[in-house]
Amino acid sequence: MTDRLALPAAAALAVLTLALWVYLLLFQTAGVQVANRSGAVLGGLTVCPASGKCLHRAHLWPHQTWQIPLDRPAGEPLRLTVREVGGQRQMLLHTPRTAERRASFVVGQGGRIVVQ
Description:
Blueprint: H1 3-26, E1 32-36, E2 42-49, E3 55-60, E4 65-68, E5 78-83, E6 89-94, E7 103-107, E8 113-115
Parallel strand pairs: 1-7
Antiparallel strand pairs: 1-4, 2-3, 2-5, 5-6, 7-8
C-alpha cells in the first residue's frame, strides 16, 4: 500500500469501527442477557421462554456475559436456571413488559439471581 492510501484507509477503518460500537451500544436487539458477577464459574445455564425453545450453555466464567438474541412476544415469561459449582440449582422466572426491552439477569454473590 502506498503512503497516499495509508491515512485514508486507517481513517475509514476507524470510522467503521466507531460506527459498529455505536450500533452495538445503542441499538441492541431484544433478547436475553445473563451476566456472571458471582466470582465463581457457573455451569448448566438454561434460558427457556414460554414457547419451549430452551437455550443451554455449559459454563459462564466470572465477569463474563452471555448475550442471547431471542425473539419473544411481550409479556412472555422467561426462566433462567443456573447450576453452581457446589451443585446447587438456582432458578428465576421473569416476565418483561415489552418485547423490545432486553431481559437482563445478573448472577451475584452466593448464586443469587436478580433482574436489571
